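Anyone opening a protein record will find just a pair of labelled lines. The record below illustrates this layout.
***
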Amino acid sequence: MYTPADLPETLPIFPLSGALLLPRGHLPLHIFEPRFLTMLDDALRSGSRLIGMIQPENEDEGAPLNKIGCAGRITSFRETQDRTYMITLTGVSRFILGKNEDGFQPYLRASVDWAEFARDLKGPERDPGLNRDTFLPLLARYFQAVEIESDWDSLKEAETEMLINVLAALSPFDAKDKQALLEARTLSRRREILVALMELAARGGTGKERLQ
């Protein structure tokens, strides 16, 4: 369990569109670009082993980054035959992106502010408003619409935070929708956004109808 004192003032930043890491969630990554291999080596040598995941605002090359990301601790890694790495990040806390840090590293490093997301360090959240009797049938319709297969027994037994966050991370929403899920201030709000997106997909809606 992390405390605010454990969190560094700067982070290596990994910009990646469509990748959603949430506190206590897991994100597998294949690291192969030389600059990110250097970033991984540096992160493994650091005391925190943290990497900041963040999405660009759009798909254009050189697009500015969103202001809110999530830091993940490297909890597993293995080298592949072609000397790249498969790693897993476990989400620790969201952050607000600050100024870029000057240096000789080939990857982005920036100051971060953790204060707004202190709740992320306090353990799993609850969602008293979740009604599984209505949520699970909607989920079934959504999975059918987007052609996803699932282990229903595991879903029915999953803890509330894990259920909502896994669905948010693994569902094929676009980057803007995933950013909205990341920025949700509470688990209940994230579930509300998730439900709206699933309902839209289940009835064949498009991104133009995205929740504002």
